[in-house]
């Protein structure tokens, strides 16, 4: 994998700055053996002999089982929860808005954990393809909207014609025939309008999702969302938020592999739902 430089400026206390300067003067290559593919092979290291195992041993002295990954998982999950709480998404919002909120929260976790990746070489062509698709959807949506307007005008005209012909009818039988004829015509036009409105809503949703995809793809093309999603975000944060807005995050955002990995989320929820019933039965027995 290609390594990616990480630049972040912070204001350090004076004693920390002096210690780092001293360490930098005495820095030596990391002991990575002959693994030339290692991203820091033969690069100066401030702490060449300290590994993640050493860090975790230090943490475990404070609390058994405490590791660097536990810290990262806690902070990544907290960032996701805050991002989801801050977003203005409700049950009635289209599905792509809920998907967008999830991706944005996932990206916040990737940024926090510095999970980076190399930007795709074909990004320019991919973006142009998405823009072309966006233009086509806009044309289709405009055409459908225009057809709805025309059919609505036609419906108004049919109703007017029906009223006029009914008023000018010479007999009861003629009026009944006119009413039946125009009822059928009006019903056909109303059905056509309903079908067009369904198509309009689908096109509008497709266009909204595509716009969200373009925006997010531009933001996260150098952030590796998969690493944080797979290993550093507690899936219950996404799952519980999804229940509030009626969006099954596990089913619609996670891959099949990750759904199997995090199957315990649903199973644990089912067990919690069954627990009060078991407790009630136990109390009745007592």
What does this structure look like?
With 286 residues, this protein is mostly helical. 72% of the residues lie in helices and 1% in strands. A two-stranded antiparallel sheet has the order 1-2. Helix 3 (68-86) packs parallel to helix 8, helix 4 runs parallel beside helix 6 and helix 4 (95-113) crosses helix 7 (225-231). The longest helix is centred in the C-terminal third of the chain and has 49 residues, at 172-220. Residues 281-286 have low confidence and may be disordered.
Lay out the secondary structure:
Layout: H1 14-25, E1 28-29, E2 44-45, H2 52-62, H3 68-86, H4 95-113, H5 123-168, H6 172-220, H7 225-231, H8 235-245, H9 249-252, H10 256-261, H11 263-285
Radius of gyration: 31 Å
Low-confidence runs of at least 5 consecutive residues? 281-286
Number of strands: 2
What is the helical fraction, as a range of percent? over 70%
Which structural class best describes the helix and strand composition? Answer: mainly alpha
Return the string of H and E elements.
HEEHHHHHHHHHH
Distance between the termini: 62 Å
Count every helix, treating DSSP H or I runs of 4 or more residues as helices. 11
Question: Largest sheet, if any?
Answer: 2 strands, antiparallel
Strand content bin: under 5%
Strand neighbour order, sheet with most strands: 1-2
User: What's the shape?
Assistant: elongated
What is the residue-mean pLDDT, rounded to a whole number? 87
Please summarize what this structure is:
Helices cover 72% and strands 1% of the residues. With 286 residues, it is an all-alpha fold.
């Amino acid at each position: 994998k290609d390594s990616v430089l990480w630049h972040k400026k912070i204001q350090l206390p004076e004693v920390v700055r002096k210690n780092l300067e001293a360490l930098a003067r005495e820095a030596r290559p990391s002991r990575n053996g002959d693994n030339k593919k290692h991203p820091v092979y033969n690069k100066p290291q401030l702490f060449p002999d300290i590994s993640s195992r050493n860090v975790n041993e230090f943490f475990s002295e404070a609390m058994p089982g405490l590791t660097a990954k536990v810290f990262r998982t806690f902070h990544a999950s907290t960032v996701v929860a805050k991002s989801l709480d801050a977003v203005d998404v409700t049950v009635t919002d289209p599905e792509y808005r809920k998907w967008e909120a999830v991706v944005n929260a996932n990206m916040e976790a990737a940024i926090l954990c510095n999970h980076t990746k190399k930007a795709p070489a074909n990004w320019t062509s991919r973006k142009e393809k998405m823009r072309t698709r966006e233009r086509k959807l806009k044309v289709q949506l405009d055409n459908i909207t225009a057809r709805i307007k025309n059919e609505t005008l036609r419906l108004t005209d049919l109703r007017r014609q029906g009223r006029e012909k009914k008023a000018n009818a010479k007999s009861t039988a003629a009026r009944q025939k006119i009413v039946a004829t125009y009822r059928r015509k009006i019903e056909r036009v109303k059905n056509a309008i309903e079908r067009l409105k369904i198509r309009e809503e689908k096109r509008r949703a497709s266009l909204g999702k595509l716009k969200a995809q373009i925006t997010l793809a531009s933001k996260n093309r150098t952030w590796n969302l998969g690493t944080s999603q797979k290993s550093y975000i507690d899936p219950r944060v996404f799952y519980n938020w999804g229940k509030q807005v009626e969006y099954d995050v596990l089913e619609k955002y996670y891959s099949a592999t990750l759904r199997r990995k995090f199957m315990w989320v649903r199973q644990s929820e089912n067990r919690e739902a069954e627990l009060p019933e078991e407790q009630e039965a136990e109390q009745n027995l007592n």
